[in-house]
Design brief:
single chain, 138 residues, alpha+beta, seven-stranded mixed β-sheet, two-stranded antiparallel sheet, globular
Amino acid sequence: MHTVVAGILIAEGRALLTLRSAKRRAHPGTWALPGGHVEPGEPEVEALHRELREELAIDALDCGDEPASRLHLTDGPPSTQSHLSAWRVRTWKGQPSNRLAGEHERITWFGAGGLDGPAWAHPEHRQVLQDMLSRPGH
């Protein structure tokens, strides 16, 4: 069982998504929240900080105490199953940029109205983002 973390970054009423490379083994050519695998013994929030530095060149400053959502992904054989937690990154330092072009073809900010169009790696995240973007102050 793998553990995966993802960051929910929202700025100016839009959420940041990454387009997974068509060459990726898992969920190629789909949109997802930025993040990645938790290393053995690594706390989830530390993995989130590391992954966001590696992928987006940002330092997450406030990720809260609990994830905004948790998914148990059961696609495929047991060796490929995973737990995915998505954390609301309330503040960060730096300007997000696509540092891992081999993993992501691009990163894009989406408003609530644009979330229905893209093919999602994890469609459950669409509703989480729509709920967050529809709340005042997000």
